Amino acid sequence: MSVLKKLYDKSKIWFAVTWIIAYCVLMSVGDALSAWVGVEKSVTLAIGILLSFTLLLFFNKYGLFSEYGLCSAKTSARSMLYYAPLFIMLSANFWHGVTLNYSALSTVLYILAMLCVGFCEEVIFRGLLFEAIRKDNTLVAIIVSSVTFGIGHIINLINGSGADLFANLLQVVYATAAGFMFVMMYYKSKSLLACIGAHSVFNALSAFANEASLTNETRILTALLLTVVTGSYALYLALSMRQKAKDKKIDDSEKSDV
Half-sphere exposure of residue 100, counting CA atoms within 13 Å on the CB side? Predict the structure, then answer.
């Protein structure tokens, strides 16, 4: 922990970048070893648990839970549209039917691994990376957090996931839009809990998605709809925050006049 703290104190940006690299490399190695063992996500889950607990222990030791959004939301559910767009996104895995893609054991391991993925990716991309950059430029932080999250999914081409180039590129597109949505949710609510929950469940439900029935046309349509839903929600949150800032500025101006 002391080594992590030294890096954290020296440069929060490099601390975040180090975590991104370590996460991508270790989870890819985990997928490769799981395939070698012959049990889907078996090693990946172990690595995911290790990374998740390391982050939790680090935050707990140095009192960083609130600073990185591991706390309750600071805004009302109503101001977040009751998170309704998230439920549309979560249903996407069932738009083309439901199937069991893995054995019973592999399905359990897959779901648990995806819970770790959702937690780690939100904490790293929306927590560590976003907060490190936001101190200097919020807009740049939003863009970098969204784009790096999307591009990070191209790792599926080399980690043994079986995704082809076309499917993977589509995933990068809507993952970038989802990254934009998640970062705006975090920025407005000051909490990562809804982001972690939605991200984890969305990934876990993919264990039951009927991917085999998809054509290139349906893949494009699905990616487009997901991009529209998540991107529109992100824009709504951004505009609502901008309007609130304007109203506050007007209110402060009126009070000063009085």
Answer: 7
- Residue 91 has which token pair? 């249903």
Longest dimension (CA), the chain: 73
Give the residue numbers spanning the domain of 16.
Answer: 2-66+76-257
Distance CA 254, CA 251 (A): 5
CB-based contacts of 56, cutoff 8 Å, min separation 6: none
**pLDDT band, residue 163 (cuts 50/70/90):** low
Residue with tokens 């893995």: 102
Q: Does residue 175 lie within any of the structural domains? A: yes
User: How far is residue 95's CA from residue 105's CA, in Å, rounded to a whole number?
Assistant: 25
Q: CB-side exposure of 229: number of CA atoms within 13 Å?
A: 18
Q: How far apart are CA 218 and CA 83, in angstroms?
A: 26
- With respect to residue 71, please indicate whether it lies within any of the assigned structural domains: no
pLDDT band at residue 206, thresholds of 50, 70 and 90? Answer: very high
